[in-house]
Specification:
Elements: E1 10-11, E2 14-15, H1 21-38, H2 41-55, E3 61-63, H3 65-71, E4 74-79, H4 89-102, E5 107-112, H5 116-128, E6 132-137, H6 138-143, H7 145-153, E7 157-161, H8 168-181, E8 186-189, H9 199-207, H10 209-222, E9 228-232, H11 237-243, E10 253-261, H12 272-275, E11 277-281, E12 284-288, H13 313-321, E13 324-330, H14 331-345, H15 351-366, E14 371-376, H16 384-392
Parallel strand pairs: 4-14, 5-6, 5-8, 6-7, 9-10, 9-14, 10-13
Antiparallel strand pairs: 1-2, 3-4, 11-12
Helix pairs in contact: 2-4, 4-5, 4-9, 5-7, 9-11, 10-11, 14-15
The chain binds pyridoxal-5'-phosphate.
């Protein structure tokens, strides 16, 4: 198989650099610096040491015996919920904060949806000693209040975004604007496998530790690879991090689960690959949710982390080549799966991760006795407000 992205930052037709002239130089510099850093044994050793001693890696692989029994399957959980700050986001934030430091940046800017990437960025910047500014949609500031406080405690400056859809998409627009204003002094710490090249590649490389560990842990625990590896897909970073090390294992199915929201109508879901079409958003060509005139549409999901109308270009490519399959799980299915895992295994997952569980449960129905690896991308404590409100309604 070819190594992707190619020299132009493309996964097949997808990816690329659709950016304003003002950013071309900064993006090229980032590309060079990232390539050098990821080929530098000293940088990689520093990253691995921090992943171990500060993030708490490797995260465990947990067997799920009671869930396995209920589903008629053999279910294994990769526990990114146990990583420092409570989700996989820290792997990427730490790696990029180290890169920002290496590049001599004066300040880091980040965007956040659920607040998990904001918290991870704030923590990673504190760790490397760089000031951090986080843009967050006003709607998300509201529904993720605990993470807002955590970011401030970790020393980040939070800037609520009142424009556009007031969620992740608008926050990315603002962060990009901030970067354009000072491309030399500012490092833009992008939170998912989206955006212009080199981000989708860089984020994948930093998150692939999930799949590398999980693959080795599966072989050690069961002496075999899983039949399917399942992850939720917002921008696609935890999914590509899980999938990438299994890409050459043809017998391992790759299943991405997007947010089906409250229905199939435009504006009711975030199922970009299942229901969207190709177009350009935030600097890259990928799938997105758009109307007949090509206007990007607002997305919906009960989980803020999946509420984004785009998706990473490598997923668009995996979707078109058929190497990975993408399905949607709705709000209600995710809430139900969250309750089931919590009660069966004593693990309260993030609402985002609950989508992966819901997709995996459907897969188990169609594949009795199958061996399933599910990425639990984060823990559910941040969602308590939403869960309480759901219970009350
Ligand atoms: C942000 C987030 C996601 C979605 O982002 P990806 O880039 O698609 O991984 C999923 N799970 C959790 C817990 C998150 O915080």
């Amino acid at each position: 198989m070819k190594t992707l992205p190619d020299a132009r930052g493309r996964f097949g037709n997808f990816g690329g650099q659709y950016i304003p002239e003002l950013l071309v130089r900064a993006v090229r510099q980032l590309e060079t610096a990232a390539r050098e850093a990821l080929a530098d044994e000293a940088f990689l050793t520093a990253f691995r040491d921090e992943l171990k001693s500060w993030v708490g890696r490797p995260t465990p692989l947990s067997h799920a015996p009671r869930l396995s029994k209920r589903w008629g399957a053999d279910v294994w959980l990769k526990r990114e919920d146990l990583a420092h700050t409570g989700a996989h986001k820290i792997n990427n934030a730490l790696g990029q904060a180290l890169l920002a430091q290496r590049m001599g940046a004066r300040q880091v800017v980040a965007e956040t949806g659920a607040g998990q990437h904001g918290v991870a960025s704030a923590a990673a910047c504190a760790r490397v000693g760089l000031p951090c500014i986080v843009y967050m949609g006003a709607v998300d500031v509201e529904r993720q209040a605990p993470n807002v406080h955590r970011m401030r405690l970790l020393g980040a400056e939070l800037r609520p975004v009142e424009s556009g859809d007031k969620t992740l998409r608008a926050a990315i627009d603002e962060a990009l604007r901030h970067w354009v204003a000072d491309p030399e002094g500012v490092y833009y710490l992008l939170g998912s496998a989206v955006g212009p090249h080199p981000y989708p590649w860089l984020v994948r490389e930093l998150q692939a530790v999930i799949g590398r560990e999980a693959r080795a842990q599966m072989l050690e625990a069961c002496g075999a690879l899983p039949d399917v590896a399942v992850a939720c897909v917002g921008g696609g970073s935890n999914a590509i991090g899980l999938f990438h090390p299994f890409a050459q294992d043809a017998q391992v199915q790759l299943l991405g689960v997007e947010a089906g929201g409250r229905g199939l109508g435009l504006g009711d879901h975030s199922a970009t690959l299942a229901l969207g079409s190709p177009g350009v958003l935030h600097g890259c060509l990928s799938y997105l949710l758009q109307d007949a005139d090509g206007q990007v549409q607002e997305s919906h999901s009960v989980s803020a982390g999946l509420d984004y109308p785009g998706v990473g270009p490598e997923h668009a490519w995996l979707h078109e080549t058929g190497r990975a399959r993408y399905v949607a799980a709705g709000d209600a299915d995710a809430l139900d799966a969250l309750a089931e895992l919590s009660r069966c295994e004593g693990i309260l997952p993030a609402l985002e991760s609950a989508h992966a569980l819901a997709g995996a449960r459907d897969w188990a129905k169609q594949n009795p006795g199958g061996r399933i690896l599910i990425n639990i991308s984060g823990r559910g404590d941040k969602d308590l407000g939403i869960l309480l409100a759901q219970e009350a309604s």
